[in-house]
Amino acid sequence: MPYIDDAARARLDDGAFPETPGELNYAITRLVDQYLRRKGGIRYAHLNEVMGVMECAKLELYRRVAVPYEDRKLSEAGDVYRVLGES
Hints:
Number of strands: 0
Order of helices and strands: HHH
Helix content: over 70%
Distance between the termini: 47 Å
Number of domains: 2
Shape: elongated
Structural class: mainly alpha
Largest sheet: none
């Protein structure tokens, strides 16, 4: 659980954008909580849905954002793995 102070919670609950990792975690947690409540509460299927969506969002972020960034940095700084160049 993201433990942020009451002022940050109020600001985020009023629609402000997260500014720290803890605030981002809180905002995602609140969204998931609202989703589960609207679905009728905690059920295995609902939890499975949420975890599946979060995993897919994570993988999409990695594929679309992190990999291109890492590839760019690799070409700028050079590779660290020597084993990749060995036969």
